Amino acid sequence: MPPKIGLAAAPTRIKRRVLNRDKLEAEIAEVAVRIFAECGYEGTSIAAIAEAAGLSKQNLMYYYPTKQALYQRVLDDVLDDWLARMESLAHEEQDPHDMLRAYIQAKMRFSREQPWASRVYAMEVISGAPLYGQQIHDRVVPLLRKDIDVFEKWIAAGRIGPVNATHLIFMVWAMTQSYADFSAQMALVLGRKQLTRKDYDDGEETIVRMVMAAIACTPPGNLP
């Protein structure tokens, strides 16, 4: 009779295969995000991503059968990270100034650490979100409304001055994301190849000061 395989052995092998697949899928998505950012969805091919990932086209398509499936995975990863940073506003019991500073810091860190991810997301949105609009609506809108509700409670309690919370958040998004989406232009204007850590720190501090002035309970001209 053939030797029996221990009952614990098969589940262990299955778990290892699942983990290895998850790891490889994540690595493929990490390569794909840069190519999608550089070439756009229409200009990107599965063959180009496979070559950059060191895989055959057939092997890559075993994990992602279509370009849209891989694009969806890339944007899912981007949105997961982006929304995780939005969560920092959803604590109304904390000091508003501390929460907003942490929020801006998180957004700037995303721009510094994940510029390709930011650009892929921006390109999708600028084109009208034809392939990812429903996910943005379903996931971003509820969290944005939650953050706006926190702002309104802060205003009602007199903890910050009256401000249009929706547009303030839009402006924070625009200011912080520009350090990813337009970093090449900024570096060109500054006369260097790329932005430095100090550039990001200086930008962050400037954005923080502007936002703090916007939510001040006294007119900005009377701030110390």
TrEMBL record:
InterPro entries: Homeodomain-like_sf (IPR009057), HTH-type_TetR-like_transc_reg (IPR050109), HTH_TetR (IPR001647), Tet_transcr_reg_TetR-rel_C_sf (IPR036271), Tscrpt_reg_YcdC_C (IPR013573)
GO BP annotation list: negative regulation of DNA-templated transcription
Domain HTH tetR-type: 22-82
GO terms assigned for molecular function: DNA-binding transcription factor activity; transcription cis-regulatory region binding
Keywords linked to the UniProt accession: DNA-binding
Keyword DNA-binding in annotation: yes
Pfam family, one: TetR_N
Name this protein carries in UniProt: TetR family transcriptional regulator
DNA-binding region boundaries: 45-64
Organism: Pseudoduganella ginsengisoli
